[in-house]
Amino acid sequence: MTIRTRFAPSPTGYLHVGGARTALFSWLYARKHGGRFILRIEDTDLERSTAESVDAILQGMTWLGLEYDEGPFFQTHRFPRYQEVIQQMLKEGKAYHCYCTKERLESLRAEQMARKEKPRYDGKCRHGVANPPKDIPPVVRFKNPQEGAVTVEDLIRGRVAFQNAELDDLIIARSDGTPTYNFTVVVDDMDMKVSHVIRGDDHLNNTPRQMNMLKALDVTPPVYAHVPMILGADGARLSKRHGAVSVMQYRDDGYLPEALLNYLVRLGWSHGDQEVFTLDEMVKLFDVTQVHSSAAAFNPEKLLWLNQHYIKSSDPAHVAHHLSYHLGKMGVDPSTGPDLIEVVKAQRERAKTLVEMAQNSVFFYREPEGYDPKDAAAHLKHEAEKPLGELRARLAALPLWLPEPIHATVNGVAEAHGLKLGKVAQPLRVAVAGRGVSPPIDATLTLLGREKTLNRLDRALDYLKKPGHSA
Ligand code: GLU
What we know:
Layout: E1 4-7, H1 17-32, E2 36-41, H2 51-64, E3 70-74, H3 79-91, E4 95-98, H4 102-114, E5 139-142, E6 149-154, E7 158-163, E8 171-173, H5 181-191, E9 196-200, H6 207-216, E10 223-227, E11 230-231, H7 247-252, H8 257-265, H9 279-285, E12 296-297, H10 300-313, H11 316-329, H12 340-347, H13 354-365, H14 373-379, H15 385-397, H16 403-416, H17 421-433, H18 441-448, H19 450-465
Parallel strand pairs: 1-2, 2-3, 9-10, 11-12
Antiparallel strand pairs: 4-5, 5-8, 6-7
This protein binds glutamic acid.
């Protein structure tokens, strides 16, 4: 059997981390078993679905690298097919027209509630309507079996049984002919030959209905795995008030996609005490049957730790690719300065996020607008004027602009003035970077280049000459 999984988001918002985790689990399952991963956009709720959300979901999937083998399929493009199946089910007596008015259904509901019964359709039209009213456009209901039970052998939840007596006859087409949500899922899972449905456990209650419809269509239902939801640290369902929940927000906050994927795979699943998983390892080791059935809590600190790990250990060219996005957002064109890969190598030990790395690296490409006031007060003092002036002259005369001679020059100037290295390196750093933090000074100057270094030293010397800089 070919394994076929699908991710079926409703485009009513951005791709959130819960959806991304479900998508990842489905993707991993397909990859592990040499199967196919399908993307299906469940956009039949015309009022809530938007083109922007579709774009956001596609963008999120691309950024995460969860490439799909088939799709994206859009349910709104499949209405004729749904119609066809509805007609077939009507013809075969597996579904029926229901003419019950809204008023009747409301009073039925009120009576059931008054009797403390679960509100459900009573099947009035199930056995045919003698004189169908011409002025009432009917809905179509599925003839749910009335006896027996539906058993879901869920890969995560284990066996879950539902009594058919608890399920009423679901509307599969509204009076305007449009199909309803549970029905479109059934037709799609059937047509797309989905073998494994991995989805959020908020859909577990839909599963017996969907299985009954699939059986009525003579299709063996797929295997289901219902993934528990994600909670915030306070135990409430993860939501915006816990911080970022949108995948693309994590991109904008400076996370690498592999850090988020690694974080998500570990959310409710473990393999010994291993924390770091390459994508290949995930494919090899992830086992959906071992996902915990209880909800998992989101831990932003751990995600940050993983991000730092991937920033430090990933191929610098890969990090540079993602860093350039952040620099671009800051209005910096990375082609106007040092090779971004070299910047990543110099910066990767000191940044937890790419936003931080970008902020720390802007000065390589754009002259700082001013000096950090505290750092300037500490280091750009009158006493720095002479050493900086001499440094400028010696650096200008260096035959080779390389780390070693640069280092020797800074050292030499410090010695000549009887100063500790920091007394020269820190003013120099503030002069070129605008603040007292940067990679080692020789690496900083090498990357910045001679011209920019000298210009910025000139500017710092002017600044020092201005009145108001006491010794
Ligand atoms: N469209 C549903 C959702 O976004 C998923 C349905 C399914 O996976 O069966 O929650």
